[in-house]
Amino acid sequence: MESELQLIDAEEKDVLQEIMNIAFGNAAAELAQVINIFVVLSVPYIRLLRARELPEYIKSEVGDCESVSIVEQDFWGEFKGNALLVFQAGAGKELAFMLNGGDTGVFEPGTTDRFESEILMEVGNILIGACVGKLAELLGDVIQYSPPKVLVENHANDALPQNLFDPGCSAIILRTMFRFNDKDIGGFLFLVTSHESIDWLKGALAKFMAQYDA
Amino acid sequence: MHELQQIFDTINLGLVILDRDLKVRHWNRWMARCSKIAPEAILGRPVFDFFPTLQVHQSFRRNCKSVLAFGSYAFFSQKLHRYLFPFPPTSSFEVKFEQMQQSCTMGPLRDDGRAITGIFLTVEDMTESAANEQKLIEMNSTDALTGVYNRRYLETRMKEEFGRHRRHSRRLTLVMFDIDHFKRVNDSHGHACGDFILQSVAGAVAERVRITDCLARYGGEEFSCLLQETDLAAGILLAERFRCQIEATDHDFKGTPVKVTISLGVSELRDDDTLEQFVKRADEAMYRAKTGGRNRVCG
Amino acid sequence: MRISKILIVDDSPISRRMLKSSIPKEQGYQFFEAGDGQQGLEMFKEVQPEVTFMDLTMPVMDGITSVQEIMKFDGSASIVVLTADVQARMIMNAYQAGAFLVLKKPPTKESIQEALNKVEEREP
After folding, report:
1. Least CA distance to B68: which residue of chain A?
2. Beta bridge partners of B178
3. Known catalytic residue: B221?
4. Which domain holds residue B30?
5. Which of B77, B100, B133 is the last residue of a domain?
6. Contact check, Cβ <8 Å, A110/B65
7. Which residues in chain C have their CB less than 8 angstroms from residue A182's CB?
8. Is residue A102 predicted with pLDDT exceeding 60?
9. What's the predicted TM-score (pTM) here?
């Protein structure tokens, strides 16, 4: 990996870390109410990277999963970026089972894949909305979202499209791991914030701490 | 009238605003027209009073909570949800659906303090494009000449059934057959007759096949039939029935009598099989039927 | 019980800063800070604060364990657990471990004042 970027300084990183802890903790708690599934979000992790290092980074973080499904969603307010939700393969079926409290059955032949895809998108949309929403709330921002897309489904981990991010950009990666109902339905959430947002972010972080230093 | 209000009333889209208790705050003209519920009747009332199906619609409830809690947006695609509001379809041509097909979105509404005060809903009529898509899917999965499924569809079904076999140990059997001396039919009576024979044979076998089975045209004069919940013995019995039926049929092509026979191979999916091995065994069995004299079943 | 000493146990200096600033200064409280559950336990024994604010996710010794250990040492300790993830299961764990109160992060002046009031109402 290339040397770590200095997009935000050490103290700003600490503040962002605490804000993320709070945001994702709050998100997990409220998610449990919304989807009636016990959710755990791990302590979030911050990394500063150049966009071209991203696919490799994500691949190495996700590790030796045989195959994965990825849901992607764009978000924009002052805080802009993409969210990538990486589930291990087969998660769609398990989630459908959990959400509907029973076997999903199959509507018609040929639609199983589509159905799983839709469940991943729905849960992905809610999970991303929860994390980004809470983060934005603490930072004093209002966010809009694109419809979620399933980028890859049940593919080997190296199938992440190379051209996903504007190569000239740098980004702050916020990463958490999530698990549902203590089961093995888990995965990773990566929030890739565009470098356009970084100036605003610095201001927002300062404003946040100013509330407490007054 | 305020311009936004004009848009609200004339846009070709359903627009609904719900407050935090899911009571209706706004109901635009499109919704009123399609539902036959006037705004005066529904304003201030819980949306579930008029649409009880929404109350048990888990995804709808879940997404309402999510929008109110996080300010997220929700998307209800026609593919998965078909519709949220049960309205009769507006267009009367080619009515395949009992209800209007809809694509809906949901988002938060905030006050000046950025607190979330309600939900807005959009409802788009997707009936026509859903009908077109269904037609496309049908065209994509059926064989144009005979009307049975095509090979692409069969292969998709096989993968699914294979998966199901792995998960639930469901028995699965494959019958492969082709028409004996088909080239001779084309040579002596012409290709139009050949086509007719293909249709006739496919039709005769289709009559004997169950709803859960999948009969497909695999190649030129070759057909496959995937049998769910069937073991080898039962598969062979069914194959024999196909054979008898075709042997006994006198096809009448524009006054000319034509008779054909079919050779069939049967294989049952074994626990250690790959999909390829499963298909290969049926194919080899069919080959044995052919070399063994034709017009017979081998398993 | 009058509060004079407040112990804050949290591995994030930012979080400790946020909490301190939510506590009214006029009362003249003495503040003590620890960066993990183990340190928190040791400092508790040394300082004997009237109220302890405890974060849950910490290295070396996590919050729940620290609460349990402190309660073993002093069964009348008033420990206020602060957590962002206020799911029923989490809250129950905290109370079962012996916490006096569970507060949601981020802390506000109001929620902290209310917690301090409740601690003061307790019998020593």
Report:
1. A34
2. B222, B263
3. yes
4. 2-133
5. B133
6. no
7. none
8. no
9. 0.78
